[in-house]
Amino acid sequence: MEGYLGIDVGSVSTNLVIINRENRIIASVYTRTMGRPIEAVQRGMVELNQQLDCEIEIKGAGTTGSARYLTAAMVGADVVKNEITAHAVAAINVIPEVKTVIEIGGQDSKIILLQNKVVVDFAMNTVCAAGTGSFLDHQSARLGVPIEKFGELALKAKNGVQIAGRCSVFAESDMIHKQQMGYCLEEIVYGLCEALVRNYLNNLSKGKEILSPVVFQGGVAANAGMKRAFEEALNVEIIIPPFFNVMGAIGAAILAKEQTEFQPATNFRGFSVSDLEYKTSSFVCAGCSNTCEVVKIQVENETLARWGGRCGKWEVASEKSLNVTCKPAN
Amino acid sequence: MSSSTNKSILNKGSAVSENEFCLPVKIFYGHVLDLTDKVDFIFIPRVVSVKKGTYTCPKFLGLPDMIKAIDKPLPKILSPTVNLNLGFKKYYSTILEVGKLFTQSYFKIGYSYVSALKEFKNTKLKQEEEWIKSKKETSEVKIGLVGHDYNIYDSYLTMNLTKRLEALGVKTVTCDSLPSHLIEKEVSTLPKKLFWSYEEEIVGAAFHWLRDRTVDGIIYVLTFACGPDSLIQVLLEHEAKNSSGKIPFMSLVIDEHSGEAGLITRLEAFIDMLGRRETEKVLV
Question: Where are the domains of chain A?
Answer without folding.
Answer: 2-86+248-281+293-322, 96-240
